[in-house]
Amino acid sequence: xxxxxxxxxxxxxxxxxxxxxxxxxxxxxxxxxxxxxxxxxxxxxxxxxxxxxxxxxxxxxxxxxxxxxxxxxxxxxxxxxxxxxxxxxxxxxxxxxxxxxxxxxxxxxxxxxxxxxxxxxxxxxxxxxxxxxxxxxxxxxxxxxxxxxxxxxxxxxxxxxxxxxxxxxxxxxxxxxxxxxxxxxxxxxxxxxxxxxxxxxxxxxxxxxxxxxxxxxxxxxxxxxxxxxxxxxxxxxxxxxxxxxxxxxxxxxxxxxxxxxxxxxxxxxxxxxxxxxxxxxxxxxxxxxxxxxxxxxxxxxxxxxxxxxxxxxx
Length: 314
Prior knowledge:
About 75% of the residues lie in helices and about 5% in strands. The protein has helices at about 1-5, 25-55, 60-90, 95-130, 135, 140-165, 185-190, 195-230, 235-260, 270-295, 295-314, and strands spanning about 15, 90-95, 175. A 3-stranded mixed beta sheet has the order 2-1-3. Helix 2 packs across helix 11 and helix 8 (about 195-230) runs antiparallel to helix 9 (about 235-260). Putative odorant or sperm cell receptor. It is a multi-pass membrane protein.
């Protein structure tokens, strides 16, 4: 009994494995991912800055987009610095407390982003399909409440599984076959009974993804119907162009998360999971500023105005 108790430990330290098969390309991968990370942070920071600096962009849509950009910066920063260290130096040690914290922050921000995506789609639905009611409903107080609700919901849903995770025992290998502390790989390392936490994790993933997905699909379906009734072919083409670019990001986000969190247990492929996680943590945060905001004429005008002000100050 005492021997068994000694073997069952709360794992004071883990080892993040990363990508051993391509570790010989570490410096190249480090450079590529560093550039992508910096571009993502710069793009999202630019959106936040111009949204708050230009009064023309202080609308509900840009308030949600700036909140989305802030969450994306935090989301990528939770994971990418450790990934860069792995590419440069190989396997990385991480303490139990730091690992649990990273898992919670990653899951909390990830869940919040999906709820905020649903809010963004509702905002576009109201603006396009219910323009007369839009200014009244989407007032500053309502916008703040919706973002706060996303944060509270994300926090409340993720605190339970991560708390249960922190109470598991770990024995045998402490090597995490991933580049960050995600829920699934950590659960698989435990020697405790994991059936309840696996069911909880699957149920929460199903709830978060399906709820936000259904809201988004219903909103965009109504938007498409409204667009089809627009009198001008040019207006229809412009609206469809915007919607199609949004769908690219949505497909990447939902597709990668469904692939990681919704697969049956028997089909778990660690390497493919890591690839899907890279899409979710590196690619989509890089694309979001370009697709959601930087292609927008209002943003282009705001950037030109900002540059003009800078030149005049000189």
